[in-house]
Design brief:
- The chain is an all-beta fold.
- The chain has one domain: SH3 type barrels (Roll), CATH 2.30.30.
- Strands 1-2-3-4 form a 4-stranded antiparallel β-barrel.
- A hairpin with a 4-residue loop joins β3 and β4.
- It is globular and about 25 Å long.
- InterPro entries: DUF2196 (IPR019240).
- Pfam families: DUF2196 (PF09962).
- This is YwbE family protein.
Length: 64
Protein backbone atom coordinates (compact mmCIF):
# COMPACT_ATOMS: atom_id res chain seq x y z
CA UNK A 1 0.00 0.00 0.00
CA UNK A 2 1.35 3.43 -0.86
CA UNK A 3 1.27 6.39 1.51
CA UNK A 4 -0.77 8.96 -0.43
CA UNK A 5 -3.98 8.69 1.65
CA UNK A 6 -3.87 10.14 5.17
CA UNK A 7 -6.61 7.81 6.49
CA UNK A 8 -4.38 4.78 5.76
CA UNK A 9 -1.65 6.07 8.10
CA UNK A 10 -1.87 5.93 11.88
CA UNK A 11 0.47 6.52 14.80
CA UNK A 12 2.65 3.51 15.59
CA UNK A 13 2.51 2.20 12.02
CA UNK A 14 5.73 0.80 10.49
CA UNK A 15 6.43 2.66 7.23
CA UNK A 16 9.12 3.39 4.65
CA UNK A 17 9.70 7.09 3.95
CA UNK A 18 11.89 9.09 1.61
CA UNK A 19 13.81 11.87 3.33
CA UNK A 20 14.17 15.29 1.63
CA UNK A 21 17.90 14.69 1.08
CA UNK A 22 17.16 11.29 -0.53
CA UNK A 23 14.41 12.39 -2.94
CA UNK A 24 16.74 12.32 -5.97
CA UNK A 25 18.05 8.82 -5.23
CA UNK A 26 14.78 7.41 -3.89
CA UNK A 27 16.54 5.79 -0.90
CA UNK A 28 13.95 4.68 1.67
CA UNK A 29 14.22 4.89 5.45
CA UNK A 30 12.05 2.68 7.65
CA UNK A 31 10.61 3.48 11.05
CA UNK A 32 7.54 3.93 13.21
CA UNK A 33 5.19 6.92 12.77
CA UNK A 34 5.30 9.29 15.73
CA UNK A 35 3.33 12.18 14.20
CA UNK A 36 1.43 12.87 10.97
CA UNK A 37 2.43 16.27 9.58
CA UNK A 38 0.26 16.54 6.44
CA UNK A 39 -3.20 17.99 7.12
CA UNK A 40 -4.83 17.29 3.73
CA UNK A 41 -6.64 13.98 3.10
CA UNK A 42 -4.31 13.01 0.24
CA UNK A 43 -0.98 14.06 -1.20
CA UNK A 44 0.39 12.84 -4.56
CA UNK A 45 3.97 12.49 -3.26
CA UNK A 46 3.02 10.83 0.03
CA UNK A 47 1.84 11.95 3.44
CA UNK A 48 4.57 13.71 5.44
CA UNK A 49 5.31 12.13 8.83
CA UNK A 50 7.83 12.28 11.67
CA UNK A 51 9.29 8.95 12.73
CA UNK A 52 10.10 8.02 16.34
CA UNK A 53 13.77 8.52 15.37
CA UNK A 54 12.96 12.20 14.63
CA UNK A 55 13.40 11.88 10.87
CA UNK A 56 10.81 13.61 8.66
CA UNK A 57 9.80 12.45 5.20
CA UNK A 58 7.00 11.37 2.90
CA UNK A 59 5.50 7.90 3.19
CA UNK A 60 6.22 5.76 0.14
CA UNK A 61 5.20 2.38 1.54
CA UNK A 62 3.18 1.08 4.48
CA UNK A 63 4.94 -2.00 5.86
CA UNK A 64 2.41 -3.26 8.45
Amino acid sequence: MDGTIRADISLGLHVAIVLKKDQKTGKLTTGVVQRILTNSRTHPHGIKVRLESGEIGRVKEILD
